Known about the structure:
The structure holds two protein chains of two kinds. Chain A is mainly α. Chain A has helices at residues 2-13, 16-20, 25-45, 50-71, 75-99, 120-137, 145-163, 168-184, 189-209, 212-222, 233-245, 256-259, 271-303, 308-332, 352-368; strands at residues 101-103, 106-112, 116-118. Chain A folds into two domains: 24-50 and 211-357, no CATH class; 73-209, no CATH class. Chain A is built from 15 helices and three strands. Chain A has a three-stranded antiparallel β-sheet, covered by helices on one side. In chain A, strand 2 (106-112) and strand 3 form a beta hairpin. Chain A is globular. Chain B is elongated, with a radius of gyration of 37 Å. At the A-B interface, helix 8, helix 11, helix 13 and helix 14 of A face helix 1, helix 2 and helix 3 of B.
Amino acid sequence: MNDNLYLRLRAFANSRFWQFVHTDFFLLLLLVCLSVGGLVILYSASGQSDEVVERQVIRIVLGFFACLVLAQVPPKYMRRASPLLYVGVLGLLILVLFFGVGAKGAQRWLEIPGIGRFQPSELMKIMMPMVVAWYFSSRHLPPSFKNIFVVLVMVLIPVLAIARQPDLGTALLVCVSGLFVLFLAGLSWRYILGALLAAPIVGFFLWQVMHAYQKQRVLTFLNPESDPLGAGWNIIQSKTAIGSGGIEGKGWLNGTQAQLEYLPESHTDFIIAVLAEEFGMFGCLMLLLTYFLIIARGLYIASIAEDNYGRLLAGSLTLTFFVYVFVNIGMVSGILPVVGVPLPLVSYGGTSIITIMSTFGILMSIHTHKKRVRR
Amino acid sequence: MASGQQYFRDYKKEQTITKHRLIFATAFVLFLMLLLVLRLFYLQVIEYERYRTKADENRLMILSQPPSRGIIYDRNGLVLADNRPIHSLTLIPEHIDDLEVLKTELAQLIDISDDEWKTYEKGSAYRRPYQSVTLKSNLTDKEWARLSVNLYKWEGVRVEAQLTRYYPYGEAFSHAIGYVGRITKDDFQDKTLNKDNYLGSLFIGKTGIEDFYEEELHGTPGYRKVEVSASGRIMAEIEQENPTTGKDIHLHLDARLQQYAYDLMGKYNGSVIVMDPETGGLLAFVSNPGFDSNLFVRGVNSSDYDKLRNSKRLPLFNRALKGGYPPASTIKPFMALAGLENGFATWSESYYAAGFYQINPNGRRYRDWRRDGHGWVDLERSIIESVDTYYYQLAHKMGITPIHDFLYQFGYGKKNILDLNGESRGLLPSNEWKKAKYGEPWYPGDSVNVGIGQGFMVATPLQIASAITAIANRGTWRAPRMAQKIGEQDIEWPADDNNEKKITLKNEAHWERVVKAMRKVITDSRGTARRLRGTRYKIAGKTGTGQLFSLQDDEEYEVENLDTKLHDHAYFTAFAPADKPKIVVFSIFENGNTSGLPADLAKKLFDAYLYDRFPKKYNYLKVSSQ
């Protein structure tokens, strides 16, 4: 019976219909599950705000729209457009440095009169792996020393521009999305080990150029109890929320940390703590499983992609998605410093939902635009 | 251009490279996922109890409900210390966007000093988040009204009402009642108070009755267990226990007598003690000048405090309790009894009282207050006329040890009062004391001076009053005490010598003889208090003149030439009716010069107390019986 159902589901997923609409059924199903689950948590995390949930629904719908539209674009067009798009977005990033607007000392947005604000660094999250994948699509793998150098330059210019805004979270994501391509292209392990060994030294120099508030975040991460009412508050309260949820959780809308506003940023970056408090470890495992299935599907799509461009791009986008998940949960649960990375598709807000859904559009496009269809 | 290169590429190999990397990545993703799961397991399973408790500590807050303080009543039920609401302006710093704007807006309504802003800023640094901080306390009705109508304009600005101590009758009562003040760390150091009882309290007794009966007056706080949001809003009440009001204290003090005695002191510094000899209860306990106790409740500002502290009249000094004076001639009846008891004097023997006394011929002359002496005097007459030379020779003969031992029974040289802290012991000198203090032996001349209550001897007004009460009671000494009831319960002090004791004489008849002599101080034509003759009740008393500086042998001063500060202290100690005393009065007028002032005071207080002859103006202190 179960076997039968599975086979029928698989048959349905592989049917011509999905091929025709260039959509991966499994990925779509998982993304819908994640989004719906996310809305349930958001409702609680926002203090049962219909308004917040409505706005999130609009974003998610827009995100799915962007996903399905991008899925229709054959990868070869993407590949050809990659360098141009990269240069264009890089130009916008440089404009941000001079004309950007923002709040709290960070200058992240471009104001387009009549349309509104947008954040070029979000676009760079997609352009970065695209351009590196494009670069390797016409070159031998594994990459030569010269090619590595060129890629590093391509990566570092936008990363530094974003870090200067300053937006450490996005800079980190953009950086890794480029480096993942390099890794997937077969970057020699020797270089990787060398880089890992060099990391502490780089870290030292980074420390020198970091903003005071960024340093503070790192320090607070290392010892949150040192400033329990100030900077450490967020981490202490989120750990308390997670821990107090236990295995079964306190029940939906019953999390005291979340509902009584002890949890900071509860509907944005720290939303996993609300899930953990109200749905317990059980809820967290469900969420992690969903993320893992999405990532597994993405990596599978990458591994059976038609060409290097598709493989590298799909692999990098998927791994970057994982970095979102890992960094967010890691920071909220107190094993990583607090960098502003949202929990993908669950956290309220911003352009990140659109960006993330777009990456899945690209994945679907790579998966469904093949000369020989796999059955 | 790309196609040219592609010819040489090994696509299969390149595909394998990426595939291997993808497999490695998958493994790594799994590994990191597992790490997250372990982290969650650690927080949610292993450390669950800890975080659960922490979350509860977050959300549950116990609000202490401070008890209201017990009331202090006089013997007739007049309220001497009350609680009344005062209004304070408080701010919640978290809710204030722009302090500077608020400052200017508030300045248009009420005056707020820089000091008050400074105190506020200090206060806002040390507190729980979202806890309000007092900016200005004790708002006047006008300020309160002005603020109240404007409160809607601001967030985080409130007017809070609070019960605060209030002393309605001012300076006359300040040294007896004492005052409460803001709690400081030091308050818990020398007291055995339970700190937990003070969680929500702002005030604690600092001096007087407020200090001694702090534990009874304070009461026990209640609490409310509430669920609060992070912003300090109370979301739900979980449990509650009401505070228990502190116990009332009923004093022996008679408010009218107290105020009357205080007023009679007038411009003179000094003290009046009025005791009920039957109970030891203090009917009046005056130290003049006093001060407004209310100043200390709201936190005295530094200029007011400096004024009080630097005043030459020392209004903050409790003379009744701590003032050290030579007991002077008030010691003579006791000295007479000491002489009788130790076999150095009899009622029948006479002594020729010249104008001075000498231990050795050609030695120092100890002068009598009367230049020409008193002629032949017996013991009784020595009391009536306050003959100094009689006591010089008596003390000289006795030596200090029997004097010390005898006087000690009357409360000299030790603490007397049962229920006030900080009493001075005075000084009842002895051989051992002098050796320890000066490394010198006791000289006969030292005894001579002590004979008339001068020299080393120092006593407090309270000591002199309680000693004379023992004579009034014909040997029963009772410790002076302020309070008679706590709540509705009579206070039972331990029945020991510190509370009450019978001083026995070899011949108990001497008590009556001494009283008779003291009676003649008023009735005899040469009695030093003869000005009080002609009362319809019998007064027995003893005058005294405390010398502030010793005169050289033959010197005599002219009163008119002296600065009033150097005038002698004037004392009078008396009780009435002499046969069955109901009231004992002792007063000291610093630099009062003659016993006239204190003698008149005593008579007025006797009249008032025994026959309810208070001036009409004190009717406001009378409680109409219901």
